[in-house]
């Protein structure tokens, strides 16, 4: 398995620290690996977070609750808590 070097969230500073409240998993009090991999590139982290927010926002054709249900089912199928 490949490992990606990251910064631990307790050492995030500057722009990265500003992003922490946006990406920390409130239930588990940590940053999920899918977001943590961007810790060496705050711009990428901000972009990933913006993409996620956009994808989960409701539209005229699919309500936010429906998108969240799809995400939940996919996460369960992948045995992923987020």
Brief descriptors of the model:
two-stranded antiparallel sheet, 82 residues, 52% helix, globular, 4 helices, 2 strands, mainly alpha
Element layout with pairings:
Blueprint (H helix, E strand, L loop, with lengths): L13 H10 E2 L4 E2 L1 H4 L5 H15 L7 H14 L5
Antiparallel strand pairs: 1-2
Structure commentary:
- The mean pLDDT is 88.
- This protein is mainly alpha-helical.
- The protein has one domain (11-77).
- The radius of gyration is 14 Å and the shape is globular.
- A hairpin with a 4-residue loop joins strand 1 and strand 2.
- The longest helix has 15 residues, at 42-56.
- The protein has helices spanning 14-23, 33-36, 42-56, 64-77; strands at residues 24-25, 30-31.
- Helix 1 (14-23) packs parallel to helix 3.
- The chain has four helices and two strands.
- A two-stranded antiparallel sheet has the order 1-2.
- 52% of the residues lie in helices and 5% in strands.
Number of domains: 1
In DSSP terms, counting alpha (H) and pi (I) runs of 4 or more, how many helices? 4
- Adjacency order of strands in the biggest sheet: 1-2
SSE class: mainly alpha
The whole-number mean of residue pLDDT values reads: 88
* Overall helicity: 40-55%
Q: What is the number of E strands?
A: 2
From the spread of the alpha carbons, the general shape counts as: globular
Strand content: under 5%
Distance between the ends: 21 Å
Q: Please give the radius of gyration in angstroms.
A: 14 Å
Order of helices and strands: HEEHHH
**Major sheet description:** 2 strands, antiparallel
Low-confidence spans: none
């Amino acid at each position: 398995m490949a490992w990606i070097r990251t910064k631990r969230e307790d050492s995030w500073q500057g722009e990265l620290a500003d992003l922490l409240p946006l990406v920390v998993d409130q239930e588990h009090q940590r940053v999920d690996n899918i977001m943590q991999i961007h810790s060496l590139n705050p711009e990428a982290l901000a972009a990933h977070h913006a993409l996620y927010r956009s994808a989960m926002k409701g539209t005229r054709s699919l309500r936010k609750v429906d998108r969240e249900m799809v995400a939940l089912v996919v996460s369960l199928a992948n045995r992923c808590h987020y």
